Amino acid sequence: MDAPALCQLCARAESARQHRAPGPSGPICASCIEAGLHAVSSGAHDPAADDALPVRLGRNDTTACDSCERNSRDSFLGFRRRSLARVTFPHSGTVLCAECLDSSGDLINRAIRG
Ligand SMILES: [Zn+2]
Ligand SMILES: [Zn+2]
Predict the structure, then answer these.
(1) 15 Cβ partners below 8 Å, 6+ apart?
(2) CA–centroid distance, residue 77 to ligand 2 (Å)
């Protein structure tokens, strides 16, 4: 039997009941996706928050998502490039965008529903 892969973002071992989604360089766990989406929707970084939680990148930060390698979102015909919300995970330094977090969350939801 293979040893369970660690979550790429928080380095926690896989528990038997926890679903994973493929990340840019390894599996990512449901709690990291959930924390990432929370950081996207809550906006500004709360300095009182846990250091291990993902932090949303500022509007002028051009660091690209490690998964899709974009830092902005193209609208119709490429006009008006809008900033794409991204979060960075302190443990690994991985940057993921809201769209990649969303699609990973969808994968896990589907896996849970069977
Ligand atoms: Zn994790
Ligand atoms: Zn992305």
Answers:
(1) none
(2) 20
